[in-house]
Amino acid sequence: MNAILANIEKLKDYIFILLVTAAYTVIANMVGYHGELAAGSIGALVLVVLTIIGIIISMLPGFNKLPLVFWVSIVAVVVSVPGFPGGDWIVAQTKHVSFLSITTPILAYGGLCLGKDLDAFKKLSWRIVPVALAVAGGSFICASALAELMLHL
């Protein structure tokens, strides 16, 4: 019973964070990408609902062996498959949200986390630079290779 209550509390926190992020995303979408308030808001809320469904799945016994991001991604992929009931509407609504506008609040959260643990960041000193470059370079190369493969198919 305590685990269920703990999950409910975590879910409340996730929902609050997602709604705040959605609000910032809509603002960034309007300012940076000239999106519409109503269409962007609906698209952001659809993304929030899909994320909440993935979070709930990840909290189920047996499903918590895989990371939360996996379940959120699976939910998003499944509902965007052509032929999924309501999938066309979901895709149409989320098209109104520029996914680059989502990075604005995410990067702000990252900056806040880094600022909060500045002493830990200082301890990493120069060693974080080659690690960050390797991660960024590897991500770019893998994403480019995957994109090339998919375009050729």
Describe this structure in words.
The chain has helices at 2-33, 37-59, 68-79, 87-94, 99-116, 118-124, 128-152. The protein is mainly α and 153 residues long. Helix 1 runs antiparallel to helix 2 (37-59), helix 1 packs across helix 5 (99-116) and helix 2 (37-59) packs across helix 3. 12% of the residues are buried.
Topology:
Elements: H1 2-33, H2 37-59, H3 68-79, H4 87-94, H5 99-116, H6 118-124, H7 128-152
Quick overview:
With 153 residues, this protein is mainly alpha-helical. It has helices at 2-33, 37-59, 68-79, 87-94, 99-116, 118-124, 128-152. Helix 1 runs antiparallel to helix 2 (37-59), helix 2 (37-59) crosses helix 3 and helix 2 (37-59) packs across helix 4.
Catalogue the unreliable spans: none
**Total of helices:** 7
The portion of residues assigned to helices is over 70%
* Overall outline: globular
Largest sheet: none
Q: Based on DSSP secondary structure assignment, what is the total number of beta strands? A: 0
Task: Tally the structural domains.
Answer: 2
The H-and-E topology, N to C, reads as: HHHHHHH
Give the N-to-C terminal Cα separation.
50 Å
Beta-strand portion reads under 5%
Q: Which structural class is indicated by helix and strand composition?
A: mainly alpha
* Computed CA radius of gyration, to the nearest angstrom: 18 Å
Mean pLDDT: 87
Essential attributes:
153 residues; mainly alpha; 2 domains
